[in-house]
Amino acid sequence: METSEILNIENHVWNSIKNENDIGLLSGLSGIALFYSNLFEVYKDEKYATRLLKVVERIDWLISEKIPLTTFCSGLAGYGWMLLNLKKNTIAIDDSYFETLDIVLEDALSSFSNKNDYDFLHGATGIAMYFIEQLKVNPNNENAIKVLTLFSKDLLHKLIDDFNNVIISKAEDPKKEIIYFGLAHGISSLINFLCYLNYYIPSLKQDIEQALIKLITFLRSKKSYNTISQQYFPSYIDNKDDVGISRLGWCQGDLGIGLALLNASTLLNDNTIKQEAIKLITSTENISLKVSGVLDFSLCHGSVGLVIQYNIAQNKYTLNTEKTQKGWYQELQKQTCNFTTFKAFRASNLIDHSNIIVGASGLGLTLLTLDGKIKNDWLRCLNLY
Description:
By secondary structure, this protein is mainly alpha-helical. About 55% of the residues lie in helices and about 5% in strands. The strands form 2 sheets. It has a 4-stranded antiparallel sheet with strand order 1-2-3-4. Strands 5-6 form a two-stranded antiparallel ribbon. Strand 5 and strand 6 form a beta hairpin. It is globular. The two termini are about 25 Å apart.
């Protein structure tokens, strides 16, 4: 990767900030701040520290103007997560600020949990990521321990004894019930989250393992090869017998499901699950661009998300995905005209984006990761470990 490519991305991101009103970690300014924090860490250029500060100031102003969402993708949970991840104290933040966030987000976590909304992007497990990050920063944070333990016990109890009510999502049609499978919202999202949670609430390992086995058993029961997508799992099923055909991406598809199963196989020390996961991931390497459903560069449903997931498969689990990574990287170059344009689909329109989930900041962080300039631990915000 040439420095000029990152400069092109940064220039695009900076020019977009004045028109960005979303504070989100994945969908807006908090993700852009994470990008600038890493740029400053890599290049030691004070310009990036100054721009980081300006982005955070804009977020604070937007929060003061309008009551924000609390979610991880688009609200306060993601904003707080970003602040906890700022590199080397580039911005001084008083502890009382986090104490205020804790109060708001604890209430939100309880509210989402009471509704059985455990969505990663827009529900309880995403908000829980903020409290996990509090523990990561300070393992002795008593409030974070208390909040996470209560939340986790409740979630695990439901997964073990009231499984269907946890995995079912409500649709716009009140008579319709949907079960998602991907990393953004579904079964594999819960699997990955529980594997990560285990590191921070190890006292619940036995219940976590029991819940994982239930999730994996359900997943296996729905495994069926689809000749259109050339994948084994749908993006969703519902109670009206509709089945969503999966794209190959981060948000949905066999690649992310396979990575989640690999993580679970490690925790459960189960070689059968491991081999199933490897076969699932390997099978996706044969899917062509035309069949994949990939139409843009984005992390969510585009080529960037594929490159970084195959990279995890190789670096963490020693799967030989180098050829597949190279193929999708070349497609990424075409889609961005060699990193000069950053359009991704919203509905049916190609639009410039600067955020992490479908925009240039996600691309920039990925390129810095692939080039070894930053660690890949920022991928936690995408439920990737």
